[in-house]
Amino acid sequence: MTDGQAIVARARGTWSLASRIMAGVLAVVLGCLLMLGVLVAGFTRYEVTERLDNSLQEVAERLEFVISALSPRQQAGDVARLPEVGPRTLAYQIMTPDGRIVLRTQNAPADPFVLTLRPGFYDRPRFRVYVAIAPGGGHYILVGEPTFHRREAERRAMLISILPMLVFLPCVWLLVRWVVRRALRPLTDLQAEIRVRGGGNLAPIPSLNLPDELSAIHAAVNSLLDRLNKALSSERAFAANAAHELRNPIAALLAQAQMLREQLHEPEAPGRLATIVAQIRRLGRMTEKLLQLSRATSGAAMADDRFDLIAVAQILAEEVQDTPPAFRDVVVSCDGLEALFVQGDMDAAGILLRNLIENAANHGTPGTVIMVALSRHGHVDIVNDCPPLPPGVLSRLTEPFVRGDSPAEGSGLGLAIAASIAGQMGARLDFLSPLPGRVGGFRVRVVLARYVAVPAARDADRLAVGTGGSTGRPS
Q: How far is residue 371's CA from residue 330's CA, in Å, rounded to a whole number?
C-alpha cells in the first residue's frame, strides 16, 4: 500500500472482519448473560425471601409450647434469656389481645413489633415480622428477623448465583476469539496467498480447504490470475520477439552502412553515412532497452542464485570503457572486499549495474571518471560529475521516459529498468544530487537486502553478513 492509499484508508476508517464478528458475538453473549443474571438475581431473591418467611412461620409454630407453659398470672414484660444471642438471632414477643407483652427475648424491643395484631407478614425498619395466633386465641406470637440479616442473605445468595457468570466472562471472550480466528483462518491463508502474487508470480492459488463462502472468491481470483498471466505473457513475448527481430536487421544495416562509408569518396557522403550510423545505433540502443525492460518485468531477478557482484561490476566497467560513444573511464573500488555475494539472478543484476553505469557515462561531464564503489555494508554507489539535479527531477527518475536536463541522447528507460530489477531483488535505489561538499555531481546508491561481504585476506577476521552488520564466516 502506498502512502497515499494508507492516508485514504485512515481517512475512511479501517475495520477488521474478525473484530466485528468477535464484537458482535460478545455483545450478544454478554447481553444474554446480563439478562440471565438479572433473572437469576430476581429468582434467587424471591426464593431466599420465601425460605426465610417459611422459617419465621416454623419458629412461630414451635413457640406454641411456650404459650402452654405461661402462668395465668404471668407478669407483663418478662424477658426470656436466650443463650448466645447475636445481631442475627431471631427475636419474638408473646402478646395478649389487649397489646401487653407477656414474654419477649432480650434482643426484642420493649414495644410491640406491630400495633395491628392480625396474622401475616409485616416489614419494619429493623425487622421482618410474622404474626400468628396461638391455639385458643388467648395470645399472639410475633417473630422478627433482623432486616440487615435478611438483606445480607439475599446479597450472598445473588452473588453466589451471578459470580460464576462474571468469572466465566474472560473464558467466553477467549473461546469466542479462538473460534472466530479458527473459522477465519482459511480467509487469512487466502489473503496471504493473494499478497505474494505479483508480476513475477501469477501462479494459481492452490486448494486451501476453503468453506463454500470463499470457494467462489478463490475460483474468481484464480480466473483473474490466469487472464493476467496470459495477457502479461503475450505482452512480454511481443516485446522480446520485437526486440529480437529488430536487433538482427539493425546490426546488419549498421555493418553495411559502415562498409559503405569506407567505399564512398564524395564529400557529403561520409557525413550522411555518419548520421545514418548514429541513428542506427540509437535505434539499436532503444531496442536493447526494450529487451532489458521486457526481462526486468518478467520477474527474472527474483531468482535465488548466489553470485559475486564485484566480478559483475568489474566486467561491466571494462565493457563500458570500450563502448562508444562515451568511452569513459570507470574505476571500481571494493572497500577491501574479496567478494560481495548477492542472492538473485546474475544476468538481471548485470542489467541493473549496466544501466546505472551507462546512465553515468551518457549524462556525466565528459572527461571525468565514473566511480563504482562496493561497500562491506551492502551498498553499491555509482558516482559521476554533472550539474546538480533539482529535487523534483530526482523523485521521478525511476519513471519510464523521465530524464534530467542533460543534452545527451537517451531512452529514459535505464533507471526505470534498474528500479524494477532492484525491487525484485529486494534492494532499493537512493538518488543524491548534488554530492556533499560539492556544487554538482550525482550518486545512485543500490542498498542490497541480502548479501555476504567477504573481506580480503588481510581482513579475513571481519565478515559482514547482510543485513544488520552481523559477523561470521561464509558457508
A: 6
